[in-house]
Design brief:
heterodimer, A: alpha/beta, 7-stranded mixed β-sheet, 6-stranded mixed barrel, disordered N terminus, B: mainly alpha
Chain lengths: 1056, 459
Amino acid sequence: MDKGKLNISNMIIENGPEAKREDSEDLVEQALNKTYWRSFKELYNDPDFKDAVKYEFTKESEEKPDLSKLSGISRRRFLALMSASAALAAAGCSNYKDKGLVIAYNQKPEEVVLGLPNYYASACTGCGSACGILVKTREGRPIKIDGNPDHPVSKGKICTKGQASIMNLYNPERLREPMFNKLQTSWDEANKNIVNELKSASSSGKEIAIITHSVLSPSLKKLLDEFKVTYPTAKIYSYEVFNDTPKQNAWFKSYGKRTIPALQLDKAKVILALESDFLGNELNQIENTRLYSQTRDVMSKNEFSRLYAVEGAVTLTGTNADYRIRLRTDAIEEFVICILNELVNRKKVSAFAADSRVTSVLASYNLNDFAAKYYLDLKSLNQLIEDLTKHQGEGIILAGDKLPESTHIAANLLNEVLGNTKLYSSESENVELMPLSTNDELSALDDNMQKGGVGVVIHFDTNPVFHFSPDYNYAEALKKVHTVVTLTEEISESAELSGYVLPINDPLESWGDFKTRTGFYSLQQPIIAPLYNTRQKEAILLNWKDLEKPYNEKIYNDYIRENWEKNLYPVFGSLAPFNKFWLTILHDGVALVNEKSESAGTFSTGAFAESSRMKAGSDFIVLLQNNNSVGDGRFASNGWLQELPNPITKTVWDNYAALSPQAASEIGVNSNDLVEITLGSKKQTLPVFVQPGLADKVIEISLGYGRTAAGAVGTGVGVNANVLISKAPAITERFYNNAQITKVSGTYEIASTQEHYPIDSDPLLKDIQYKRGIIREGTYEEYKTNPKFLKEKEGRLNLQPINKPPVYESKDYTGYKWGMAIDLNKCTGCGACITACNVENNIPIVGKDQVIVNREMMWIRLDRYYSGTPDAPKTSYQPMLCQHCDYAPCENVCPVVATTHSNDGLNAMAYNRCVGTRYCSNNCPYKVRRFNYFDFRDHFRDSIQYAEPLDLLANPEVTVRSRGIMEKCTFCIQRIMKERQDAIQENRKVIGSNVKTACQEACPAYAIVFGDVNDKESEIAKYREHELAYSVLEEIKVLPNVTYIAKLRNVLEESK
Amino acid sequence: MSLDATFTREIPLLEGKSSFKEIDDVIAKPVESKPTIKWWIAIGISSTALLIGAVCLGLTFWYGIGLWGNNQPVGWAFDIINFVFWIGIGHAGTLISAILFLFRQKWRTGIARFAEAMTIFAVMTAGLFPAIHTGRPWLDGYLLPYPNQHNLWVNFTSPLLWDVFAVSTYFTVSFVFWYVGLIPDLATLRDRTTSGIKKFVYTIFSLGWRGSNRHWQHYERVYLILAGLSTPLVLSVHTIVSFDFAVSVIPGWHTTIFPPYFVAGAIFSGFGMVSTVLIIVRKVFDMEHIITVNTLEKMNKILLATGTMVGYAYGMEFFIAWYSGNPVEQFAFINRAFGPYAWAYWIMISCNVLFPQLFWFKKIRRNIPITFVIVILVNVGMWFERFVIIVTSLHRDYLPTSWAMYYPTMYDIGILLGSFGLFFTLIILFARTLPVVSMAELKAVTENAQPKIHHNGSE
C-alpha cells in the first residue's frame, strides 16, 4: 500500500476502532503508518490516549468517587442556588404590564376582607366648613372621599376640593422629615431647639405668634389657650383669605351677635342673590345646593322657587338664576336701598314704614331713576318687587361675602321688611369658636415683627407669605424674627422662608373635633397611619406645651379624648359610658347634641341709619374671587383640581382677568392679551378672558394662583392676585373700585376645555344648542299649563325610528338594563361629578399643554351653552358622558371588537383588545370618548404621577389604562359588578337602585339618577317616562340611555 | 410624425422609427449603465425625506401618537389623510394596465409599467398608515382574522376591517399583474446582461421565458385574466375606503355619494401623480419619443374628465345638504366652505376643479411645463380634499362644546414628507433596476410591428 495515498476504504480501516487496538513497539514506525491522526498524542501513540480510546469512561469515573475531592457545594446547596437563581431570573424579568409585587397579608386585620372596601367617617379640613366625610379604604389605604350621609350639613355630599383632597395624602412631594435651614434634622433635635427658643422668647418678653387658619376645633382651642398659659407671650392669629367677616360684622351691628343662622333655603319661594355665589364658592355651598335643588324638583308637586341674581361677576349662582340682573358690584347697595324704598315708602309693606330713621334714608333713593341709570330692565325689576311682596316670609335676600358691611345691613333690613327672617333656622346657627384676627391685629403683629419684638413665629399649617397683602411686607418682617417655624404638609412660600419646616400629618392621618354649627360636633379620625416621619400639627404644639410628656402618636388623641370626657361628654347627657360614647361618635363621624342657638336680638334700625353708604363709581372694579379648584392656593399642588374646568369659563390651569366684551373692546384687548391692573400702588399683569355677562367695568380675578413654591405641579400656575389685596381696603379685602387697567404687550394662552365662540356674531352658531335638540328648555308657566308642551313643541325632533328594522341586530334586554337620568333643573354645573369620576376611575392628569390640544381625559364633562346676547347670556349646563346608546355607533366601527354591548345595556370597553384606531371616537356623535394619546401619567411633569406613593391612590377596581387606548365612562361598571356579586351571594335579583355611580353619589343637587330602567317601579324608570324627558340628538336614532330632564326656567316671558 | 397624417390614421405611439434593438437599448440603458450624478442626487433627496419620516415615526413609536396633532374630536388627521391620498395615487396604475388594456387603449403602452409600479409603491406607502396610526401599533395583528386562543374574531361590520381586506387584495393582485408583465422584459435583460450575478437573478425571475409562441400565448391569456380580475378592484378599493366615512354618522361623512366620488377622485389623483413622475422620467432618461406628448395629452383628457366628475361631486354634496333639510348636515358644508378651514376647501376647489379646466384647450394639454404645474396642483388639491373631508367634518360635528381646531405638528409633517420619501425612493430604485417601460409591449406597437390595416379594410 502506498503510504502517501489512501483510498476511502483504507481510511475507514486505518481510522476505525480496530486500528487503534494495534500494539506496536516502534513509535516512529507506527507514526508513519498512521495516515490520519487526531492529535499528537494519537500520532505518537501516547498510552493515555490509547486508554482513553479503549475505555468509554475515564478511570476516575469508574472508580468510587472520593467525596473529599469533590467541591464543597452539596447537592442540596446546588439545588438551592439553582432555584434561587431561577427565582431571581423570573422575578427580575418583568414586562410593562407587570408593575411591582403583590403582597398578601401575613396576618389579616380583623376588619379587612380582601377585595371589599371599608368606610370610615371623618371630617374634611379643606375650608372653614368642616364637612363630614366618609372615606373609602381598600386594604388599608384610603382611595375615595365622599360626604358622610349622617352629617347634618353635608348629608353625604362633598365639594370638588374635598373629593380631590385625597390626592394630597399621596402627594409624592409631601415633606417627609423635619428640616432645619433646609437640612434634614430629627424631631428630637428640632423640638429641643424650638422649645428653647419658645422659652427664651417667653422669658425675654418677646412675642410668640401662632398664625393659623380659622380654629374650628374645640380641643385645638383649648390647646391653644393652654399653650398661652405655658408661654405667656404667645398670641394666636387666625386668618382666612375667603371669609365672611363683613357679613358677621353686619350681623353684629344688626342683631347684636356675630353668628349667622342657618338658612331654610328649601322653603324659599323667592331668592334674591346679591353678588352672592351661594351655590358656588361661598361657605356651605353643598348644603345650599341641596336645599335649593329641592325647590326645583319636577317630581314633587312643589312650586318652583324663583331665583334672582344681581351681580357684577358671573357666578354659578347667577348663571343658574331665572332672572339675572347685571349690575356693577358697587351699585348693589344702592339697588337694595332702592328696593327698600319701593317696598317701605311706597308700598308700606311693613312696620318699618313708620320708622322715620329708616324712611328718611330711603327717601332719597328711587328705583326708576336707578334702573334708568344702569339700563336695567324695569319689567324684571317690577317682577322682583311683586314677587318679594307676594312671598313675604317665603323669600330670602342673600348678600355675597365680598360685599361690605353696609350692604349686608341693608340686605338684613330688606329681609326684616319682608318678614323673611322666618326662613332663618331657629335651631341651627353658625358657631365661631375663635374670631378671625382683624386687619388691625395682623398689622400690630407685623409692626411688632418689624421692630424685632417677636421671638418666634409659628405658621400653623398656613402660608401667610403667599396670602398676606403686600402692605404687610410680611416676608421682610419674617427676616427680623429669630425663629420661624412652619408646620406644613408640603413646601410653601412660607416654608421657604422658615428656619424650621416641620412636616405634618395629612388630615386623613389626623385626629380632630370640629364645631361649626349648633346641634352637632364633627369628628375626625385618622384613616391611615402616617406615611412618613410626620406628626400631627396639634400634637407638635401639645408636645411643646407639655415638655415632660414624651411624644407618641397617640398624644393628641388622648388629649381630645380627655377634653371630651371632661368637658363635652357631660353636656351630651349620654347614658352610655364614655368609652362607648366616644367610639360611637368616632364611628358616626358626628355627635348630635341638643342645644339651641342664641336668640337673636331685634333688628337695630340704627345700624342701618348710621352705616356709611357705598357710592357707586364709574371706574373699573376688581373682584377677587374664590374658585372650585385651588381655593386660596392650598390645593395648588393637586393636579386634579388644577385641571378641573372652571364651571363657567371652562378654563383650567390658570387664572385671568375676566372682562366683559364691551370693556374688552374699549381697552382694545381680546382673550389671551395681557393687561396690567393697577389698584393704587399695587400692580399685577394678567391675561384677559372675555366673559359674556360680566357687568361692564368689572374685573374678576381668581385668587389662589401664582404660587411660587408649590412643588412640581403647582408652582408657577397662574398669576398671584393676592398682591392686589390691601390691608386697609376701602370696601372689603376682595372688592376694590377705582382700578386702572391698561393693555400691555404680549399674550398668554389660557387653556380651556371648551372652545369659546362668539355667541352673537355668527348666525349659524346662534342658538345651535336649541336647533340641534341638545338643550331643550321651557318655562315653568308653560309646563304648568301643559305638562306635555316639550314633546308637542318640537315636532321635528320627535321622529319615529326610521331604521326599522335596524341595520344591526338589537338585543331585547329582558333582564335588568342600566340607564341614567340627569335632571337639568337641579344641576347647577358645580363640577363635583367630574372630580368624583376622576377619583373613582383613576383618570390621569394631562397638563395644560394637552388641554390646549384638546386631549383632556375627564370621562364626564359639563357642557356650558350660552344663548342670547353677550351682555345678558342665558346659560345652560349639561353634564355629558357616554350615553351607552342601544345602537351605539362606536361599536360597529371598531375593527377589533374592543367596544361591545353587554346584555344589561352597557357600552363596554375591552381595554386589552383596543389597538387605538380612534374610529369609535370619530363616530361618536357626543364625542365622549377619551384617547390616551400619551401615557399621560408619564408625560405630565416628569412622570410625577408614577412617583411613589401615588400608585396607592388608584382604585383597584378600575384598570389603569395604558398609552394608545380608548376609554370612556363605564357607568361605574365596578359598582354594578359589586351589586351583581352581592345579588348572587344573597340569592336575589339585582336591584338597580342599589348601584350608585360615582357622579351620582357626589352630586350635591341629587340631579343624577341611575338604575334599572326595566324596573318600572324604579325612580329611573319614572324619570325616563317623564314629560320633560328627552335624549340629546334624538333624531340620529342611536337610542342613548342617558335621559335629560329639560330645564324649566321660572320666568314669565315666552322662552325658546 | 409623418406629414401625411390623416384623421383616420392612428397617431403613432412611438415617435420616429425605432428598431427593436434601439428600443431595448434605450429602455435597458438605466438598468445596465452606472448611475449618473442626477440619479444620486435624486436618491439622496428622496432617502433624506424617508429618513426624516423614519425618525419622526420612531419617536412616535417611543412616545406615542400624542406627538401628532390629532386630538378630541379630530381623531384622524394626517395619518388617514395620507392613507387615502396614497391609496388614491395607486389607482392610476391598475386603471391604466387593466381597464385601458381591456379597452385596447394602446397608448397606455408607454406608461403602463411605470404606472403599475407606482401603484404598488403607493399602496405600500398607503398600507403603512393604517398600521402606524393605531395607538398601540405593536398589536396591529389584532386587525387580522386569525385563529387564536382567546377565540376572538375581528369585527366584520367595521369598514376599517374591510379596508384591511380591500387593500391587501389590491396589493396582491396589482403586484402579480405587474410581475407577470415584467417576465418577458426580465428575459430580455437576462439575455442582454454580461454580469454573472445579474444573469442569475434575471434567470430566476424570468421563470425560463424563451419567448416561444406557446409562452406568448399563455402570457397573453394570463395577462387578460389578471386584467379582468383587477378591473373591479380599481372600483372596489376606493369604494371601500370611502365606506370608512360613509358608514359613520358624522355629518360630512355620512354620504351615499362617497363611493363613486372617491373612485373618480382616486383616478384623478393617480393620473396626476403618474403625469408628475413621467414628465420627469421621460426627460431624465431621454424617453421623450417613447412617452410621447400624445400620451400625455390623452392623460390630460382623463384628468379633465375625472376632475370635472369630482367637481360635480363637490357641488352635489352641497345640493344634497341643502335638499335634505338636515340643519346639521347643512352646517357641516357651510362650515367647510366658510368656516375656519375654508382656506383648505378653496385650495381643494381651485386645484381639483378650476385648474384642470384649462385642459379644454389643446395648446395647454400639449404644453409640458403647464401640464406639469397643473398635475402638481392636482396632487396638492387631492391631498387637501382628504384633509377637508376628514378634518373639517370631525372638528365641528354635533355638539358644539366638543368643537376644536386641529393643527399638525412637525411630526405629522415629517411623516408626510417621509411617505413621499418612501414612495420616491422606491420609484428611483425601480428606475435603476427594472425597465420602466415595457419593452415587449412597446415593440408590439412600433410602426409595422402589427399587420397593417388598410383604409379599405383589407389586411
